[in-house]
């Protein structure tokens, strides 16, 4: 598939390289193309462009920007470039405040989520929450003695969730489909839980698994 990744941080670069490794065509987008020139030269045939060029290129969009900037980045990507497309939302609503005893502070409350806000703002896009509850070092082909870790996903469009589940399977994950967008209220805080061992014990390499 043609994957358009919005972002120039570690998550964007890791996911872009991962989709490339697994045979997809990739364009990565930023406000400042110079930030990605080195990455693009090291990852041919991936290309770097603006947010809107990456979104226009995409059959599947990946949103990998700072949570507080997610709406702005999507506006720069432009709603018509997102319409009808799965948008894999890896963001977390982390506030610009320090963690409290290792617990991140969010700018959302318990009865809402960043992804629902974005879905409300961009109704034609088909948001699917994924990749928000694991560190970027483990996002692609994660290897654990306990087998494949679980990626919790959700989003209003069933077909988009199916596409994302297929992509996750290629990238080495099992998927736990939690249904509609409101499930992001539970999936986004998994990021808080995931980060506690990191901030308190410098352990950053775990992932979640759902046992049945
Ligand atoms: N780090 C991890 O391992 C990890 C794991 C899971 C989920 N996440 C989530 O993934 C997302 C990306 O994390 P990250 O650490 O890779 O990068 P980040 O530092 O959180 O975000 C960098 C990106 O945000 C964009 N950005 C910042 N301010 C902006 C603004 N005012 N308007 C538009 N875009 C703006 C930047 O755009 P430019 O390219 O134009 O500078 C850049 O692409 C975050 O939401 C994070 O919570 C991170």
The secondary-structure element order is EHEHEHEHHEHEEHEHH
What kind of oligomer do you see?
A: single chain
State the shape.
globular
* Alpha-beta classification: alpha/beta
Task: List the defining traits of the structure above.
single chain, 212 residues, alpha/beta, six-stranded parallel beta sheet, 9 helices, 36% helix, 17% strand, globular, binds NADP nicotinamide-adenine-dinucleotide phosphate
Structure, explained:
- By secondary structure, the protein is an alpha/beta fold.
- It has nine helices and eight strands.
- The chain has helices spanning 10-21, 34-42, 51-57, 70-77, 79-82, 114-121, 158-170, 184-187, 190-201, and strands at residues 2-6, 25-30, 47-50, 60-63, 86-89, 126-129, 150-153, 174-177.
- A six-stranded parallel β-sheet has the order 3-2-1-4-5-6, sandwiched between helices. A two-stranded parallel sheet has the order 7-8.
- Helix 7 (158-170) links the parallel strand 7 (150-153) and strand 8.
- Helix 3 packs across helix 4 (70-77).
- It is globular and about 40 Å long.
- The model has no long low-confidence stretch (mean pLDDT 98).
- The structure holds NADP nicotinamide-adenine-dinucleotide phosphate.
- Residues 7-12, 30-32, 35, 64-67, 69, 72-73, 90-92, 94, 131-132, 135-136 line the site of NADP nicotinamide-adenine-dinucleotide phosphate.
């Amino acid at each position: 598939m043609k994957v358009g990744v919005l972002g120039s941080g570690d998550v964007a670069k890791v996911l872009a390289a991962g989709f490339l490794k697994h045979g997809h065509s990739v364009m990565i987008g930023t406000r400042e193309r110079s930030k990605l020139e080195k990455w693009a030269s090291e990852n041919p045939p991936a290309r770097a462009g603006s947010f809107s060029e990456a979104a226009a290129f995409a059959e599947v969009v990946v949103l990998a920007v700072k949570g507080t900037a997610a709406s702005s980045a999507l506006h720069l990507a432009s709603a018509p470039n997102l319409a009808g497309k799965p948008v894999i939302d890896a963001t977390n609503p982390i506030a610009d405040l320090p963690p409290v005893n290792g617990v991140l502070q969010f700018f959302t409350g318990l009865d809402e989520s960043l992804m629902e806000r974005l879905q409300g703002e961009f109704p034609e896009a088909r948001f699917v929450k994924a990749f928000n509850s694991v560190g970027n070092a483990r996002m692609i082909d994660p290897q654990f003695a306990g087998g494949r870790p679980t990626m919790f996903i959700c989003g209003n469009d069933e077909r988009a969730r199916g596409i994302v589940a297929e992509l996750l399977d290629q990238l080495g994950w099992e998927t736990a489909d939690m249904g509609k967008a409101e499930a992001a209220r539970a999936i986004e805080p998994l990021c808080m839980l995931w980060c506690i061992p990191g901030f308190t014990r410098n352990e950053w390499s775990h992932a979640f698994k759902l046992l049945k």
